[in-house]
Structures are given as C-alpha cells and as structure tokens.
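Incident review: delayed structure delivery

Summary: a single-chain prediction request sat in the queue longer than the usual turnaround. Root cause was a stuck worker, restarted by the on-call engineer. No data loss occurred. The affected request and its eventual output are reproduced below so the record is complete for anyone auditing the incident later.

Affected input:
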Amino acid sequence: MSVVLITGASRGIGAACARAFAKAGFDVAVNFNRSREKAESLARELGGYGVNAIAVQADVSDSASVCRLFDTVKANLGFVDVLINNAGISHVGLLTDMTDDDWNTMIQTNLSSVFYCCRAALSDMIPAHNGVIVNIASMWGEVGASCEAAYSAAKAGVIGLTKALAKELGPSGIRVNAVSPGVVMTDMMKDFSEADIAALKEDTPLMSLGTPEDVAEAALYLSSDKARFITGQVLSVNGGMVI
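Output delivered after worker restart:
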C-alpha cells in the first residue's frame, strides 16, 4: 500500500487531502504543528476507510524537525511514496509594515518547509526511482497580490522550485507538480465579512468560491497514474479568477 505524507493536515485543505487519499487506499501520515487533538481525531477517522493513519507532530519550518518527521513516518508506515507540501500561513498588510521576523516566518513556513520536506523525501524516492511530490502553491504566487507581497513571494518560490525539481528529478522517475488554489473557504477566510466574500464571488467567473475538497481532488489526480505523463505543471484551481 502506498504512503502519503501531508503537511499541515489537521484542518482545511490538508485535512481534505488526507480524507481523499485515504478513500483512495493510501496509508496517511497527518502532519501537524500545534493542533494535536484535531490531527489525532482525523487519523482515527481515516482508519475507518481501512487504511493505516498516524498523526505526527513536526514544525516543518525547522529542518531538524522535518528529519524527525520522516523518520517517524518511515518507522510506522514505510517510506513516503507521495508528499503533499501543504503547510502554510497567511499575512495581510503593507510590506512597509512587515518586520524582519514577519518576513522570515513567512518564508520559512511557506517556502523553506517545502525545500526541507522535498529533500527528506528524496533520500528514499531517488533510490526507488519512484515518487510523487505535489506542492500547494497559490494563485498569488502566479500573479501577486497587493498587501500580500511576502505570501506572494513565498508561493512564487514554491512554483519555481516545483518546475526546477521536475526537471532535476524526471530522470529519477519522480514527478513534481503544484496545485495553485484561488479563494478557498478555509480558516484563512475567517476574518472576511459576508460583503467581502460576496465581492470575491463576483470577481470569480464561476461565481463561487472553492472548497478544500476541490483542491484535494486536484492533488489526488496529480498523484495518480492518470497523471503519469504530467510533471512540472501548475494546476490552477481558482474558478477562473486568474487565467
């Protein structure tokens, strides 16, 4: 049975990915940083699909923590066949108001974590000549967003890393792609008013906002044999907001 590791999987897009992969028959490693109760509850839920699932604490913005994460997953489930780099944070505000700590936290959490996790996963994927990496980017990494400069920069970095790794790892039989969500109804939207949400819907050609499940299904597709000839691509799941 294949093993998937999903970072930041205790809620939102990560939790939706965990459910989608479990339903598809994957053993699932649910990574979390602080939300232990939610992650452990999700792991128990996933067991109901007849797969093995564990919740593993790790701060993926820290290199040593990532190494411990992969060691734990390998000891309990086996080596990681599919890596979903989903963990991330948001920051809304003017660049001139950002502190050095704000910037460094954003880059470490949203970009460096992807580097750390990819590097750790490849130690087994390359010798096996097999593996899939899906990085969760953002439409703002494609076009940039006012008052989200640091977030946009980090996600643009994820897209660049995705494309470069696809070229580097193709000869090793490893595929690397990105899913680029638009506006998705997750915890990141909790501070938006009903008027804000209505305006965002009007700005979206499909006149609706995305769900975590929309993103999860895209990630599952890119991880499947149906996408065997797809690598280095950015699959935008944004309702047409960015075309």
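Verification: The chain has a mean pLDDT of 97.
Action items: add queue-age alerting; document worker restart procedure.
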